[in-house]
Amino acid sequence: QVQLVESGGGSVQAGGSLSVACAASGRTSSMSAMGWFRQAPGKEREFVAAVSWRRGNIFYADSVQGRFTISKDNAKNTVALRMNSLEPEDTAIYYCAARTGWEVLGRLASDELYNYWGQGTQVTVSS
Fold first, then answer.
1. C-alpha to C-alpha distance for 101 and 11, rounded to whole angstroms
2. Which of 10, 62, 66, 91 is the most buried (most CB within 10 A)?
3. Quick check: 107 and 59 in contact, CB under 8 A?
4. pLDDT for residue 103
5. Which of 111, 82, 107, 83 is nearest to 98 (CA)?
6. Containing H/E element for 27?
7. Distance (Å) of CA 4 to CA 16, 64, 99, 102, 119
8. Alpha carbon of 23 to those of 43, 55, 78: distances in Å?
9. Neighbour-count burial for 77-103, b at 16+ CB within 10 Å, e otherwise
10. What confidence tens digit (pLDDT) does each residue in 2-33 have?
11. For the CA atoms of the chain, what is the radius of gyration?
12. What pLDDT, on the 0 to 100 scale, is given for residue 106?
């Protein structure tokens, strides 16, 4: 089992910046990827960013490319998401996810690839 706890988030005006972080505990040695997804009211959960745990390959959704930065700390078993130039459309609950087991060489954008999820943290961007 892997436990994920998110922190950060909050409220900011459009154009501002926020960070969210996720700390993993438990069987972290089995992790092969971590990612961020988000879900806005009335919408389905969507991929934001992901990083492969061993290779460090990074992937972003087109909507956040160039504005968001994902980073990891293998020693601390944490992953962070720095969000710049935030837009009202970025308002959502942001979820941390972890994949354990064999490594996926693809884009890591499908939520079906992840088997552990955090409780989510709210990010609100006002216009």
1. 35
2. 91
3. yes
4. 86
5. 111
6. none
7. 26, 23, 11, 19, 8
8. 26, 19, 5
9. bbbbbebeebeeebbbbbbbbbbbeee
10. 999 999 999 999 999 999 999 999 999 999 99
11. 14
12. 81
